[in-house]
Design a protein that fits this description.
With 183 residues, this protein is an alpha/beta fold. The strands form 2 sheets. The chain has a 4-stranded mixed β-sheet with strand order 3-2-1-4, with helices on both faces. A two-stranded parallel ribbon has the order 5-6. A hairpin with a 2-residue loop joins strand 2 and strand 3.
Length: 183
C-alpha cells in the first residue's frame, strides 16, 4: 500500500509518496496543498495519507533544507520508480548522479548513454515523466546551449530557473512561464 504526506517548504506545499521506506512519488512545491496532493494521487491512485517512516521523514527534512537554500545531496534517499523502460531507467541513473550546482543537457545525457543526439528528445520525455523530481534532479538538465528549456512542474521553467539559482546556477531568465502539466 502506498502512503503519502503533504508538507510545507520555504517555496510552498509539497507532497511525497512512499511504499515501505522507499519514496515512490514526489511533487514539487505549489501555492496550495490541493495541487500537489491531487498530482500525487494521480500517480498513486488509492494512496492513503500517513505519518512518514523515518527514512521518508529524513527525505522530507532534506527537501525542506533544500528549499531553504541549504546544499543537500539526495543520493542516499531510497527510491522505487516502479516499472520503467530500460532507457528511462538509465536516464534517471545518470541524472541522479548530478551533484548540487552542476548541470548538463538533454543531448549530453543521451551521449553519456551511448545514444546519438536524436535521443535528446527521449531524455526530455524521461525528465517530464520523472516520478521523483528533485530527488532525481531533472531541473539540472537543460536544453541545448544551456537554455532552461521546459519544466512540467508547478511554475514551469520559471520554477526550474529558481531551483537552479538556489544551487548557484545562473541561467538566462525564461521568456515566459510555461504552463504546469501537474508534474
Amino acid at each position: 500500500m502506498h502512503r503519502y504526506h503533504v508538507f510545507d517548504t520555504a517555496h510552498g506545499v509539497a507532497a511525497i509518496g512512499w511504499r515501505g521506506g522507499a519514496v515512490t512519488a514526489f511533487r514539487l512545491p505549489d501555492d496550495s496543498a490541493a495541487a500537489p496532493e491531487r498530482a500525487l494521487l494521480r500517480r498513486l491512485p488509492g494512496a492513503e495519507p500517513g505519518d512518514p517512516p523515518a527514512p521518508v521523514g529524513e527525505a522530507i527534512a532534506m527537501v525542506r533544507r533544500y528549499f531553504a537554500g541549504e546544499r543537500v545531496d539526495f543520493a542516499a534517499v531510497a527510491i522505487d520508480l516502479g516499472a520503467q523502460s530500460p532507457f528511462f531507467a538509465q536516464v534517471y541513473a545518470v541524472v541522479r548522479a548530478l551533484p548540487w550546482g552542476e548541470r548538463t543537457t538533454y543531448g549530453a545525457v543521451a551521449k553519456e548513454l551511448g545514444a546519438g543526439p536524436e535521443f535528446a528528445r527521449d531524455v526530455g520525455q524521461a525528465m517530464a515523466a520523472n516520478p521523483v523530481p528533485l530527488i532525481v534532479p531533472c531541473h539540472r538538465v537543460l536544453a541545448a546551449g544551456g537554455k532552461v528549456g521546459g519544466f512540467s512542474a508547478p511554475g514551469g521553467s520559471v520554477a526550474k530557473a529558481r531551483m537552479l539559482a538556489l544551487e548557484g546556477i545562473v541561467t538566462e531568465p525564461p521568456v515566459a512561464a510555461q504552463a504546469s502539466f501537474g508534474f
